[in-house]
């Protein structure tokens, strides 16, 4: 006379006290047989005390006995069996929950510690765990909030009746298959999902964790740059065919760099960045190659090379803010004097019209 309870934390086999608690065992066996407990949440876990389940509404206020299922609300609960007295004296005892009127329905708990004598006479023991104490230990150590509700979504996945000495009533609604989860259950967001890790860093090395933290920080910074307008979008990548060259000698020109770097491939654009006002070199430049392969070859060969008595530093360009703006159009001219502006006069020669 036993039942296999498959939970999302592991399996538990329960042996029932058929002789001592015949009515309770009949209630439990038939509820398991009609899959009443399938997908019920483990609502409460009190460490080294009990865990409680058996309410299909998952509120702690629902559930009914098999007699309520068969005969309606007037038979929702039935009286507890208290004779002979069975004490809550060891870990792994399964007991129906008293509804406050010395009656029981479908909700039950399993003890997680020995010597819980203060529960005697208040709730109804009707069986004990014979296999699955590792599962009980895992449930006992589950993280819970201040109301003893587990953060993880732990449920009874399935119940299998291994041995049933009681005959089935003629109108017992035994389903042909286990019930499917509802949309509300699948989309529930107030619990950690069954396939979601509680600790995201579990099984990772310190180096992997550090790398992930750096990537998250970089992504957060990119989002900030996107909000202030320095990036077109957060996932924008720098060009892979542009080199950044710095520590240049002020006398080094764009033409010099184009000749020196041109040996590694065709250069699309090469420019030493200058101060807008003084037109003096800012001692860094961008060099765009036609292909990333040419850019990579120049990077490996030219870093730390001496040019015009200065040892330069070469790296791949990390700038995306300048991706579309650093190039200088050679045919652009900015008129600075009145003589460069097309001035037309009217027939009388009075007022100029631009």
TrEMBL record:
It catalyses: [protein]-peptidylproline (omega=180) = [protein]-peptidylproline (omega=0). One of its GO terms (molecular function) is peptidyl-prolyl cis-trans isomerase activity. It is found in: Nucleus. The keyword Mitochondrion does not apply. Residues 241-319 form the RRM domain. Transmembrane segments: none annotated. GO terms for cellular component: nucleus. Gene3D superfamilies: 3.30.70.330, Cyclophilin-like (2.40.100.10). The keyword Nucleus applies. SUPFAM superfamilies: Cyclophilin-like (SSF50891), RNA-binding domain, RBD (SSF54928). Belongs to the cyclophilin-type PPIase family. PPIL4 subfamily. PPIases accelerate the folding of proteins. It catalyzes the cis-trans isomerization of proline imidic peptide bonds in oligopeptides. PANTHER family: PEPTIDYL-PROLYL CIS-TRANS ISOMERASE-LIKE 4 (PTHR45843). This is Peptidyl-prolyl cis-trans isomerase. It comes from Panagrellus redivivus (Microworm). The lineage of its organism: Eukaryota, Metazoa, Ecdysozoa, Nematoda, Chromadorea.
């Amino acid at each position: 006379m036993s039942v296999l309870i498959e939970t999302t934390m592991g399996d538990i086999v329960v042996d029932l006290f058929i002789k001592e608690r015949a009515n309770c065992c009949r209630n439990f066996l038939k509820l398991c047989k009609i899959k009443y407990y399938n997908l019920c949440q483990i609502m409460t876990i009190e460490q080294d005390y009990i865990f409680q389940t058996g309410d299909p509404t998952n509120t702690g206020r629902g559930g009914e006995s098999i007699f309520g299922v068969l005969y309606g609300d007037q038979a929702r609960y039935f009286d507890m069996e208290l004779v002979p007295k069975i004490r809550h004296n060891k870990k792994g005892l399964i007991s129906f929950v008293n509804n406050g009127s010395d009656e029981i329905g479908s909700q039950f708990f399993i003890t997680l510690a020995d010597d819980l004598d203060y529960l005697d006479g208040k709730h109804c023991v009707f069986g004990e765990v014979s296999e699955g104490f590792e599962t009980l230990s895992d449930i006992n150590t589950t993280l819970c909030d201040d109301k003893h509700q587990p953060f993880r979504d732990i449920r009874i996945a399935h119940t299998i009746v291994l041995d049933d000495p009681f005959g089935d009533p003629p109108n017992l609604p035994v389903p042909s298959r286990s019930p499917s989860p509802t949309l509300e259950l699948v989309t529930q967001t107030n619990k950690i999902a069954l396939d979601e890790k509680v600790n995201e860093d579990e099984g990772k090395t310190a180096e992997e964790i550090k790398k992930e933290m750096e990537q998250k920080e970089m992504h957060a910074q990119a989002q900030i740059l996107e909000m202030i307008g320095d990036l077109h979008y957060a996932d924008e990548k720098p060009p892979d065919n542009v080199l950044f060259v710095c520590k240049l000698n002020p006398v080094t020109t764009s033409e010099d760099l184009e000749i020196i770097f041109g040996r590694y491939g065709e250069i699309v654009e090469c420019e030493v960045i200058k101060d807008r006002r003084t037109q003096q070199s800012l001692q860094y430049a961008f060099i765009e190659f036609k292909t990333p392969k040419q850019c990579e070859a120049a990077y490996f060969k030219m870093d730390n090379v001496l040019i015009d008595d200065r040892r330069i530093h070469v790296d791949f360009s990390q700038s995306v803010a300048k991706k579309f703006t650093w190039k200088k159009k050679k045919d652009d001219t900015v008129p600075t004097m009145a003589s460069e502006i097309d001035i037309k006069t009217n027939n009388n020669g009075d007022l100029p019209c631009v």
